[in-house]
Design goal:
CATH topology of the largest domain: Transferase(Phosphotransferase), domain 1
Structural class: alpha+beta
Largest sheet: 6 strands, antiparallel
Strand content: 25-35%
Distance between the termini: 96 Å
Radius of gyration: 42 Å
Number of strands: 34
CATH superfamily of the largest domain: Transferase(Phosphotransferase) domain 1
Helix content: 25-40%
CATH class of the largest domain: Mainly Alpha
CATH architecture of the largest domain: Orthogonal Bundle
Length: 667
């Protein structure tokens, strides 16, 4: 746990009274992943612990993503088993516990120099596209897809790990692209490299890089430095070669520099399925399978010590006689989905017992009895199973429609059938419930047969209609006709008429545009114009007419000049007053009236010497001033003039209308 304690010191810690950390898998500055044991369920899991700092900054976002992933319930998406906050090493920390498939990762294969054929790459790519498509339709993205996140179950099924869980930390890391780690940069998209907004198309680009690496052994555009690697992807054509075969055209579209030109996960998956028709049958994938201590988990696999790659072991045979026979049994191994099912042949040696009676005189009697008894047992057991096979007329398939997938599987456990699962859209059957079975209900199926559960994935997606130029009523109608809900909101718009749609958005998938598929019943936020936003009138006092006009023009307001006036507090040429006043709200295009100052209106104090009191009053009035306080004997001599308590003299300038105080000698 970066900044708190060495992650290695946490081995042995029990998280949330349930998960005991067994081995550190991958430490980083934001989180560390451990192999752990689920004490309650007694199984191996992965636990990702986030640092206390990261838990504080993005912990809520991580837990929300974990909640969304837990609701997906898809075989190609690593299931989230538990998520929350726990006290670890004395600090409150966010953790996420996830399913841990035991077939190793694609990175394990690449680390051992094992490249895939294009056919094998298709097998992996289709299942990853299934996982991404399911997640993207739920608003969940990966944003850090790497070979280490592509995990295999023991039966070679692909499971994508860390979907959604890494997205919040990836968004933080990519806020400064030059600071990302070399491994993160290795599978980055052009939009991430250019510090542009990125979305689910980033996952598609990363998958294209991974499949090229899996077939050729190298990642396109990777150089010696992070900066050079990132810059080399911007506006560059995706490199494809003849080595990729029919994959080339699929990867070229998935790896286009512009996200809007790039395939979606669903489109890429369909293209991979189509490309498979021109390819040879793939070999079984060379899984690297080990537990927390590095020991092999699957008894039927053994390790070649020279290359450390798991391989199928031969069946041990007991030699009773020299006569043996081999048979080839063809098993269908489902390795992809949709229209793609790839079969693999596995050879099994089937020992056939035969007892020879010659030359036994030299053998000990006990040994001869053991050999005879063993041979008889083999013949009896073999005959029993042969009889069972011949006489097995099968069991009638019950009606499983409308049951949940779990209920259906539990109800037929005793029948001994192998259960396959495919998904299909349904308007009538709730997602996760069985639509029908193949073979259908009522048919008979032998105990070794395969029963396919066709499970509903909910209503089929519908195209998001184009609502541009529609008013709110027409937009609601258009969405309703498509099977979508409308949440009408208002927002200002400078260009769109009042009541007409400005924009619309799917809250869970804000990057969707008109024509993109959305789940039926989804609520669409429709923003309708309420006209231009009101303007706040700026303070124009003291500004020149030219600057005031320019400022109002920026706000799309107009100016009207009234007659100029004198202003004590505004110099000549500056605006002295305005209507409406500064700070008021007005509609766009409102006219603002202003008065330009002529400067202060001043007059000179007249000469009042030798004038009597009446003459003094008349002279002051003629000058544009008024008489203020008068003290002393007005029949005496005028000894002083004052303005605002200060002595003034004839010729001094005062504001027009100012009050002049008179002081006379005597009482």
């Amino acid at each position: 746990m970066s900044g708190v304690v060495d992650p290695l010191e946490l081995v042995g810690t029990i998280i949330d009274d349930r998960f005991r950390l067994e081995r550190l898998v991958s430490p980083s500055t934001q989180s560390s992943t451990f192999v752990a044991v689920d004490i309650q369920e007694k199984r191996s899991v992965h636990v990702r612990l986030f640092t206390p700092e990261t838990s504080t900054s993005i912990g809520d976002a991580v837990l929300e993503q974990a909640r969304m992933v837990a609701s997906i319930n898809h075989p190609t998406v690593a299931a989230v088993l538990s998520a929350g906050r726990a006290v670890v090493a004395g600090q409150r920390t966010v953790y996420v516990a996830s399913e841990r498939p035991l077939g190793g990762t694609l990175q394990d294969m690449l680390d051992r120099g094992r490249l895939l054929t294009p056919s094998q790459a298709v097998v992996i790519g289709v299942d990853v596209c299934r996982a991404l498509d399911r997640a993207h339709r739920r608003g969940v993205v990966h944003l850090d897809l790497r070979p280490s996140a592509i995990v295999f179950s023991e039966n070679q099924r692909v499971v994508v790990a860390d979907l959604g869980i890494t997205a919040p930390s990836a968004e933080v890391a990519w806020s400064v692209p030059s600071g990302v780690s070399p491994e993160r940069a290795r599978y980055a998209s052009p939009e991430q490299s250019a510090a542009q907004p990125f979305d689910e198309k980033t996952d598609v680009y990363a998958l294209a890089l991974i499949l090229v690496e899996a077939v050729t052994g190298s990642v396109p555009f990777v150089t010696d430095s992070v900066v050079a690697t990132l810059s080399s992807r911007i506006d560059r054509l995706f490199p494809v070669s003849a080595d990729l075969g029919a994959l080339a055209s699929v990867l070229e579209k998935a790896g286009r520099a512009q996200p809007e030109e790039r395939s979606s996960a669903a489109e890429m998956g369909r293209a991979l399925v189509q490309s498979a028709s021109t390819m040879p049958r793939p070999d079984v994938l060379p899984l690297v399978v080990s537990d927390a201590t590095g020991e092999i988990l699957i008894p039927s696999l053994e390790v070649d010590p020279t290359i450390d790659v798991a391989r199928p072991s031969e069946f041990a045979s007991m030699h009773i006689a020299e006569t043996t026979a081999s048979s080839t049994i063809s098993r269908d191994i489902p390795t992809a989905v949709g229209d793609l099912v790839i079969k693999a042949d596995t050879e099994m040696l089937a020992p056939v017992a035969a007892v020879e009676g010659d030359d036994d005189d030299d053998k000990p009697l006990v040994a001869r009895w053991i050999l005879a008894a063993t041979a008889a047992l083999v013949l009896v057991v073999g005959g029993f199973f042969a009889y069972r096979w011949i006489t097995d007329n099968g069991r009638e398939i019950p009606i499983l429609a409308n049951l949940t997938e779990g209920q259906a599987a539990n109800s037929i456990t005793e029948y001994g059938w192998d259960i396959e699962r495919i998904e299909e859209f349904s308007e009538d059957i709730e997602a996760g419930r069985v639509i029908r079975t193949e073979p259908p209900a009522g048919d008979s199926l032998k105990s070794s047969g395969v029963l396919t559960l066709v499970v509903s994935s909910g209503p089929p997606p519908v195209p998001l209609p184009d609502l541009a130029t529609l008013d709110s009523v027409a937009a609601v109608t258009a969405l309703g006709n498509t099977g979508l809900q409308a949440n009408v909101l208002e927002e200002p718009s400078e260009d769109v008429a009042v009541g007409v749609v400005v924009r619309w958005v799917v809250p869970e998938q804000p990057n969707l545009a008109a024509g993109d598929d959305v789940i039926k019943g989804t609520t669409i936020d429709v923003y309708v114009s309420q006209g231009p936003a009101p303007r706040i009138v700026p303070d124009l006092k003291g500004q020149t007419l030219e600057s005031a006009t320019a400022k109002l023009a920026e706000l799309r307001l107009t100016i009207k000049r009234l007659d100029d006036q004198f202003f004590i507090d505004a110099p000549a040429g500056a605006i002295g007053s305005q209507v409406p006043a500064a700070g008021e709200q007005v509609a766009r295009d409102t006219e603002i009236s202003v008065v330009v100052s002529k400067g202060p209106d001043v007059v000179a104090i007249p000469v009042l010497r030798r004038l009597n009191f009446e003459q003094v009053k008349q002279a002051i009035a003629d000058a544009g001033l008024v008489v203020g306080n008068v003290t002393g004997n007005t029949n005496g001599v005028l000894v002083a003039l004052a303005y605002n308590g200060q002595i003034v003299t004839p010729g001094q300038l005062l504001p027009r209308g100012a009050a002049v105080d008179l002081a006379y000698f005597g009482r």
